[in-house]
Amino acid sequence: MSKILIVAEHLDGKLNSSTARCVSAALAIKPEAIEVLVLAADAASVAAEAAQIEGVGKVLTVNRAENAHALAAVLAPQIAAVAGKGYSHVFAPSTTFGKDLMPRVAALLGVAQVSDVMSVESAHVFKRPIYAGNAIVTVEAPASSIVAATIRTASWPAAANGSSNASVEAAGVEVGLPSHTRFVELAQGKSDRPDLQGASKVISGGRALASSENFEIIYKLADKIGAAVGASRAAVDAGYVPSDLQVGQTGKIIAPELYVAIGISGAIQHLTGIKDAGTIVAINKDAEAPIFEIADIGLVGDLFKIVPELEAAL
Asked: Is 300 known to sit in a ligand binding site?
């Protein structure tokens, strides 16, 4: 029977919703047990959150000062040590955190990683996107070794928080940690808007905004409906917004309930990042823009006239 270990992603003492999405993927395997591993300097609050996720049978904690910041070189040896204690699978979200971490874990376990799992066919057979999402490939991992995989969070709903109250235990991990990698600082933008990867509503702007000053109309509309703000790569490359707002193949893969693309033509790399969105709305003056091919609602016109009118109507 399968026994799955999920590496929790967290920041500032709060569990990221990507962990609950990994639990949904794990549940699709119908395993004997699902356990969550929390590595932190003080794992108590994150472990308590993880224990509430439906389907989780146990939460394991590793409290070490070296785990105060998520450094892949430091976390990987500890995860590999725990995963080697009878687990058939070890999962992490296919986010910046998981993409940085899991190749090291897989290498330490001596297995090939399965990346961006979007559906489960069986305990060792999965589907994942390739060629910027233009094709889906079926991959089979050897049944004789641990499966190390990242989960495409946009393809899975978050497992519910409910009456579940899994036990929390300390995991005994005695491994030497590398000293050549050290945390210096974390530079990140502060915003009262929802997190882009977890938001239910996202409004994105493209190169047609023409300047960072003009991007303010995107921010104002997003604030009106409590949405996160995103951008196309073209807008990021032009310097209108910071890179952490980029949506697409080389940015963030998201699946909000509502996605509004304003002044975005719809290059395939951008569409890859939003294909799992619920309702897609496009506003563009070019009626032939590729974005209209996938949009549920399309409006052809001048965004500088339409967006203020839309904000006023709201």
From this structure: no
Whether 52 has a binding-site annotation, put simply, is no
**Cα 294 from chain centre:** 22
Q: Residue 82 pLDDT more than 70?
A: yes
Q: Is 246 annotated as a binding residue?
A: yes
Domains of the chain: 3-170 (3.40.50.620), 201-313 (3.40.50.1220)
Q: Say if residues 125 and 183 touch (Cβ distance below 8 Å).
A: no
Q: Is 283 labeled as ligand-binding?
A: no
55 is in an annotated binding site: no
Q: What tens digit of pLDDT does each residue of 217-253 get?
A: 999 999 999 999 999 999 999 999 999 899 998 888 8
Q: What is the pLDDT of residue 91?
A: 98
Amino acid type, 111: V
Query: Which residues contact residue 76 at a Cβ distance below 8 angstroms, ignoring those fewer than 6 apart?
Result: 101, 104, 105, 108
3-state secondary structure of 13: coil
Is 122 assigned to a binding site? no
Q: Is 186 exposed, middle or buried (0-12, 13-18, 19+ CB in 10 A)?
A: exposed
**249 among the known binding-site residues?**
yes
DSSP string across 199-262: -SEEEEE-GGG-STTTTHHHHHHHHHHT-EEEE-HHHHHTTSS-GGGBBSTTSB----SEEEEE
Tell me: is residue 200 an annotated ligand-binding position: no
> Was 264 annotated as part of a binding site?
yes
CA distance 173 to 83: 11
The reply, when asked if residue 263 is annotated as ligand binding, is yes
Using the predicted structure, report yes or no on whether residue 92 has a pLDDT greater than 90: yes
* pLDDT (0 to 100) of residue 292: 96
Annotated binding-site residue? 29: no
Residue 180 scores a pLDDT above 70: yes
Is 301 marked within a binding site?
Answer: no
